[in-house]
Fold these 4 entries.
Entry 1:
Amino acid sequence: QTVTVLFDTGSSNLWVPTVSAGKPMYFNPNASSTYEPLGQVFHIRYGSGPVWGYFCRDTVAIGDLNLRNFTFAHVDDAST
């Protein structure tokens, strides 16, 4: 699945919205055969408000670079 990610150079955290975040492009963990939930809550506050979700591992591709077992967060609430 392809998800467009905007890189925030002011943060070292990679997160992607899930369908429950209500964004038009989202990550569907059920569509990934390599998805691994980690069970840890992810929460970060920006100037525009907070986002929260859960940490997970999956294969992430950035261009030709494939990162196996990459840890990131899938965000369920991105109301900012």
Entry 2:
Amino acid sequence: WIDAYKKHDVPIWGVTFQNEPENPAGWDACVYNASEMVEWVSGSLGPVLRKEQPGVKIFAFDHNKDHVVEWAEASFTDPAVSQYFDGIAFHWYTG
């Protein structure tokens, strides 16, 4: 989808692995915990995105600030996954 946006002159400079990964929404959504994020990013998203879109940054977490420390520790203590993250995203409106 990043290539499709580029074709319409919409540059994508960064993505998060999942918006609100802890939200069990009432619609189609993915719920992740920190260890599941690590597994998916280190084994799939990170390697593929770095190969196919090397200039696009990847941000961990992207949910409420009350759990940011737990997710930051999971994201940045293991080099197998931290090599793919350029930062961490979080929401300030709760926690």
Entry 3:
Amino acid sequence: AMYAIGFVYFGSILASIGNIKDGYRFVKLAKNIVQRFGYKDVAGEVLFMSTHTIGYVEPIQSTLECYLEGYTAALEAGD
């Protein structure tokens, strides 16, 4: 589960230094890992961190939806 967090942070760093395409790919990978394997304990952090990169590529509405999903997942996990 921790590797999903690593992927989302790495993607966020890549996007922040200008490599938005690859950063977005790592963020999507992290989100897919969390959804596919049901890692509820890290879902909040992964979804919350992914909003930083998703905002570069997708409409702002999807960023807000992802943020709210992350907030809800974090509350459910006790974070």
Entry 4:
Amino acid sequence: KYGVKMDDAILAEEKHQPIYKELVDNYSPQYIAGGATQNSIRVAQWIMTANGKPGQSAYMGCVGKDEFGQQLEECAAADGVKVHYMKDESTPTGTC
């Protein structure tokens, strides 16, 4: 349907964008705040929370002013990470 073959790894192009809505509409995805650095901050916060120090980490970055940016912010906050995102109205939040 989107020109993707079984077991392919691709970089999403404009033609692949509708797949994200299809996945949300037809399945129950679990959203996790991601990106290498943000994942490291989340793990560090998990360790600090386990040692009685919740809410001690922060992350700064940029997201699109869109649904995925809002979801990313909510997920990071739920993990105890204080996020400060610049919100770009012209560029969508990265997804994978």
